[in-house]
Amino acid sequence: MSSPCSVHVRRPRGLSRTARRRRFAGLSALTVVALLAAACGGNTGESDQRSSDVPLVYGVFATPLEEPWDGAIHRALKAADADGNIVYKYTDNNDSSDKMTRTLRDLIANEEPDIIFGDAFAAEDAVREVAAETEGTTFVFGSGEKPAGPNLSTFDNWMQDPAYLAGMLSGGMTKSDVIGVVAALPIPEVNRIVNAYIDGVKETNPQATVKVTFINSFFDPTTAKQAALAQVSQGADILFAERAGVIEAAVEKDLPVIGMMVDQKEEAPQNVVTSLVWDMRPTINHVVEQFNADSLGSTDLAEFSFMKNGGSSLAPINTDVPGGVPVELLQQIDEKKAAVLDGSFVTPVNEDPPPGSTTVGE
After folding, report:
1. In what order do the strands lie in the sheet with 152-155?
2. Which domain holds residue 333?
3. What is the DSSP string of 276-302?
4. How far is Cα 195 from Cα 214, in angstroms, rounded to an integer?
5. Domain assignment of residue 12, yes or no
6. What span, in angstroms and rounded, lies between the C-alpha atoms of 211 and 351?
7. What's the number of domains the chain is made of?
8. Residue among 80, 136, 89, 120 nearest 282 (CA)
9. DSSP state for residue 226 in the 8-state scheme
10. 245 plus 328 within the same structural domain
């Protein structure tokens, strides 16, 4: 998390970037240094200084950062901060609409962030209400809905391409012809990933059965692990960990498992065969570039998560997992990946609940 004394000259509300430069041009160098020293308790060291052209960005997350979805956004924002493109701060565990509303309003009143990134899936109305009343702040939120007003852009993890490839891998690896998927909720943004995975399974193994369990939560590792173990008891010999908790079940039963959001091989080097990787940097880079040019507005940022645009990928395949990975299967996946990247194959997008899926949890 960035130091609270990172120097950031905030954009005055209602002023363009050009107007802001003109406004500060009249300040002498000594005046600016004095103001910054006062703001930082006298510390004017270079390590704390950032250009006035760098936006202050806050991450406002509903879940703990251990949850992979928000964790992927957080890591990408930290990287942008390390590159000097933004000043980044964050808050997590805003797990209700009321808490999300309070946090957003407090930050806007006290910190005046230029851009706020976050996830609105559990608090759509709250985020949209605050955005509508705060047009001087740019909101960029993960959402299943459309952009709104002059300042609310939306994104999502459109990861159907790596999901399809992971499904091909799983279908070619299973010995029992039973595969388990544990996912969050049967909502469009989750369904399209699970359905793409199932389509990939069917390409390499048409007779395979894919058992899908939703845990009715974005973050409940205990329930996710229990659901995965139940699938193993029903014959599943490879698992897709769309939610946290499933990898623990795979380790316990010494089975191969597909990770999610980031390359999770480090969590279980003997079991994680690959992961669907979401890279938010293309989205963040576009947002910052457009913000700096005063031309972001409200934008649907979905395309920046597509594999062809560098927003998602399949992590390197680990062939040292139980059962190994056939060389012919690796070749099939490489060919399909090339087809995705050159546009000759377009992964189907199906946002309906997978047939036969079940839901557990509260």
Report:
1. 87-91, 56-60, 115-119, 138-142, 152-155
2. 160-278+311-359
3. EEE--HHHHHHHHHHHHTT---S-B-G
4. 13
5. no
6. 17
7. 2
8. 80
9. H
10. yes
What type of residue is 280? M
Distance of CA 197 to the CA centre of its chain: 18
Neighbours of 206 (CB within 10 A): 9
One pLDDT digit (tens) per residue for the chain, 362 residues: 433 333 333 444 433 443 333 223 333 333 333 333 333 333 222 333 445 679 999 999 998 998 888 999 999 999 999 999 999 999 999 989 999 999 999 999 999 999 999 998 878 899 999 999 998 899 999 998 899 989 999 999 899 999 999 999 999 999 999 999 999 999 999 999 999 999 999 999 999 999 999 999 988 999 999 999 999 999 999 999 999 999 999 999 999 999 999 999 999 999 999 999 999 999 999 999 999 998 888 999 999 999 999 999 999 999 999 999 999 999 999 999 999 999 999 999 999 999 999 999 76
Going by the DSSP 8-state scheme, the letter that residue 12 receives in this structure is P
CB count in 10 Å sphere of residue 24 = 13
Q: Is residue 212 part of a domain?
A: yes
In a domain, 10, yes or no: no
Task: Tell me the pairing of strands 152-155 and 257-261.
Answer: unpaired
Separation CA 144–CA 20 (nearest Å)? 34
The two three-digit tokens of residue 160, written as one number: 């159907």
Distance CA 315, CA 277 (A): 6
Domain shared by 216 and 316, yes or no: yes
CATH number for 31:
3.40.50.2300
Amino acid at 33: V
User: Order of strands across the sheet with 209-214?
Assistant: 312-314, 272-278, 257-261, 239-241, 178-183, 209-214, 358-359
Instruction: Look at residue 257 and give its three-state secondary structure.
Output: strand
